[in-house]
Amino acid sequence: MSQQTEQRLAQARQxxxxxxxxxxxxxxxxxxxxxxxxxxxLYAPVPNMKPPEFPGGDAALxxxxxxxxxxxxxxxxxxxxxxxxxEVEFILEPTGRPTLPHVSSGLGPGYDEAAVYAVTxxxxxxxxxxxxxQPIAIGWQVLVPFN
Length: 147
Prior knowledge:
single chain, alpha+beta, two-stranded antiparallel ribbon, 20% strand
C-alpha cells in the first residue's frame, strides 16, 4: 500500500471515529454490550463448536455484501482511490439472523451506515452449533468491502 493510500485510509478511519462521536451508534453499541453481559461471554470458545457459515460460503457472503452496499458509496470509494473495508460486529442468533449490528472499525459517514445496512439485509447464516448440534448465539464480525 502506498504512503498516500495509507494516509487516506488513516483520514477515513479518523472520519469514522469523528462520525461515531456524534452518537449515531451509541444506543446500538450499548444494547450490544448489555446483551453480551446478559447472555454471558458470546466470544468464549465452545468445545467442539461448528462455526457459523453463510449459505454458499465466504465468496457468496462477499458477493452479497458487495451487492447490498449502496452504489453511490462504492463510486465514492473508487473516486478517493483506495479499496477498504468496514468491520461490522453483531450477535449471530441461533436462528442465523444477525442482531445489533454496529461498526467496530469504519471508514466514516456514508460508508459505516451502508455497511450496517448491508449486514441487516443479509439472509440468515447457518448458525454456530455446539458439539451436540444445538444452535447457539455468538458474537461475530464481517468485513464489508468497498472496492
